[in-house]
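Protocol step 4 of 5: obtain the predicted structure for the target chain.
Materials: sequence only (see below). No template structures provided, no constraints applied. The aim of this step is simply to have a reference model before the mutagenesis design in step 5. Sequence pasted as it appears in the construct record:
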Amino acid sequence: MRDRRMYTVFALMLASFLTAVDVTIVDTAMPRIIGSLGGFALLTWLVSAYMLTATATMPVYGKLADIIGRKKTFTIGTVIFVAGSALCGAAQSMEALVLFRALQGLGAGAMQPTVQTILGDIFSPVERARVQGWFSAVWGFSALAGPLVGGLMVDFLSWRYLFYINLPLGVLALAMVWRFLEERVEQRRARVDYLGAVTLTGGMALLLLVLLTGGTQLPWGSPQIIGMAAGAAILLSLFLWTQGRAEDPILPLKLFRTPVIGWGNLSSLMVGGVMYGTSVYLPIWAQGVQGYSATRSGASLLWLSVGWPLAAVLGSRLVVRLGVRPSVLLGLGLNVAGSAGLVVLARAMAEIPEVLLALVTFVIGAGMGFSTLAFILGIQSSVGWAQRGVATASFQFIRTLGGMIWVSAMGGVMNLDLLGRLQRVPGVAARSAAEAGDWANRLLDPAQRAALAPEVLGAMQEALAGALRNVHLVMLLAALLSLAAALLIPNLRFAAERPRASPAD
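Step 4 output (structure tokens):
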């Protein structure tokens, strides 16, 4: 039995690696992809399309896993993911590639929460704490390996193999899950909440489109943004209305009355701002303000992926000894410390030494490792088999949604402040936030940066630094709010017994 579980864990690790690494693996390959297919204007959608569909569908797949079982839901997701990967590799235009990346995301949206749910089924909380540490290491390794593997494949093979490599590995993971995972689905009468699924997926897709394109590709006051925001508000309001009346709702609202789940998800909504804010805006500081190359600025962020798995391994012991609450508070306290350290350093120094940038990201990564592990264990242990899938998916969904909301807010703060500062710089004509962004892009492009006059370059760097200092304050606010919400989480202690694979056993 133990061997079967270990083989299952290997298969789930492989699936987690594939879905995680596909977020970053295209980063270093983008110039080659553009050279092959064209479509520069659609460049950012290579990542955005994947994240959009994966995030919007997580709650629906979580509910599906509770109705038809984890194995079947994992199969649906893996088949879609592998098919999307094959189509991406064969794409003949950028439009087709973006569409197939969205299809990949539809599969990843099923695989990611289902993997965590299966772990909740086959391991006790004490065992799960240790195993979750391994999976955190996989996520950290994925962030490190994605750009490296992508660069090697592009240099020695073709960018198309970035997607073709998913085919044999995805099939292997699926075959191993079917061979070694023993599951008996809890037989219960369930009616599919089709209206809830449609309104949630449609509403979230529109909301994410607003967050991804507002202030960047489209002005916030444009008819497109206003229309999508209105559509999202209508669909999500209808979704909430249906969930109070559906016989078997997609996202049972009563789940959030459980203190660990309710306060945990509220805290994760805030902590998403710290996680995504660090990864998005710290490289802008390193490259735009301090003039680092992309590789050099990325080296500082690598410590985020080092601190996370190390803290998860240590946190697995802390959770077992002391319970969920101490690990959550330690992790979120580290997030506050790292965010506050960034605020202080950016104001005290014109240029932050690389070792201090690395220290800040390591502390934030450690905070994410401690808190994420404890959140997942606490949420999964607060529900039974029949709701574990949707409870797990809700946590991952809400944290990602929170990250996008906070990053969008940070972008608005940065663009407005940057506009006012650049308008005071002689020789810089910036009449709108979009034009201010265009000038900021020159600081991030080595060729355009070198063409700027020294006095203009220095003034623009200071303007960008001032705008980013306000972004750091917003990130610190998100960290403080996440810690405040977590103070209301009750402590949950775990016994050492191991549960059966499902209630039917």
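Step 4 remarks: Residues 497-505 have pLDDT under 50 and may be disordered. The longest helix spans residues 385-422.
Proceed to step 5.
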